[in-house]
Amino acid sequence: MAQVKLTKNELRDQQLKLSQLERYLPTLQLKKALLQTEVNNAEAELEGLQKIAEEKKQAIKSFSKLLSHNHLSDLVEAIEILEVKTHFENIAGVEIPLYEDTVFQEAGYSLFDTPLWLDSAVVRFRELFSKLKEIQTVQIKKEQLAKELRDVSIRVNLFEKRLIPGCKQDIKKIKVFLGDQQLSAIAQAKVAKTKIDLRKKEAIA
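Request: output the structure for the sequence above.
Response:
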């Protein structure tokens, strides 16, 4: 760390720096609080989605005995994922993905040549896979928010525990030095005045 200069100019610079740090700190603290709220919301959202996904997994177990049927290839084709649609939104200064929809391969099988259970199976599997993709998107959102929260927390700690206290300490150090210099100058001036007065008296005598 650079040694602080014990001058009036440095005192002004340090006071300006302290003012800027103290003005910016509340913004960082607010961002930290907002990010923490968003991370908590994402965790709660994930928990809810995971419960729904588990319910959907249980719902398709009824089709497990039918999956060895010769129409399995039709099912696999109909649940092939073509695209996961998302859009990005700025939340607490972070660009994060938000889930929109999952696009599947158009079903190519004939409704007349396939069993009734196939349509229900396609719907159930698509619902499950859509939910899993939504979970993935929310997980990415949570990770990005959590990373930003860690970065902002580091900056808040830096401001609160190092930069602001260090600046205050430097200001105090400079003020003490300048105060001592002023007292020394006053003392020297008094000594000089006393000598001058004494010489005047001696000259008169």
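Residues 8-198 form a domain with the Helix Hairpins fold (CATH 1.10.287.3240).
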